[in-house]
Design a protein that fits this description.
Helices cover 73% and strands 0% of the residues. The chain is mainly alpha-helical. It is elongated.
């Protein structure tokens, strides 16, 4: 992603903000929806510029399973792109590494939400065992 591309995105965003300020306060709900749609379009545009097709496909499959993880990865990729740390398009292997880093970060913070805890009864009989004594 070159500096010219980033500058073009910044100029477009600045123009959007200026239009929103000129519009006044009427119709905020319509503007919110329009703003969300524009942000989503900007995200997809940036991601299509920084991801190879295989990596984009993998990220799409991840979004189907766990949207929050895909959003975290997208945010991290966009931050890396805006700061100029990405020199080439992200490959599928690099995306896997980034996914691992995000998963470790979530586990460390305790926000993974994927932990399953099974509690079992200890010892003792249950109701089904009583039926066997009657035989």
């Amino acid at each position: 992603m070159s500096d010219a591309d980033l500058e073009e995105i910044r100029k477009g965003r600045l123009a959007q903000l200026q239009q929103q300020q000129q519009g006044g306060a009427a119709g905020d709900s319509g503007r919110d929806e329009q703003r969300k749609q524009q942000e989503a379009e900007a995200r997809t545009s940036i991601l299509s510029q920084i991801l190879q097709p295989e990596a984009a496909d993998r990220l799409g499959r991840i979004r189907l399973v766990k949207e929050s993880r895909a959003t975290d990865v997208e945010n991290r990729l966009i931050i890396l792109a805006r700061s100029g740390q990405l020199r080439a398009k992200v490959t599928e292997e690099q995306l896997k590494e980034l996914l691992g880093a995000v998963a470790e970060n979530n586990e460390r913070d305790g926000t993974s939400g994927g932990k399953i805890v099974v509690s079992r009864r200890k010892g003792g009989w249950d109701d089904d065992d009583d039926l066997l004594l009657d035989l």
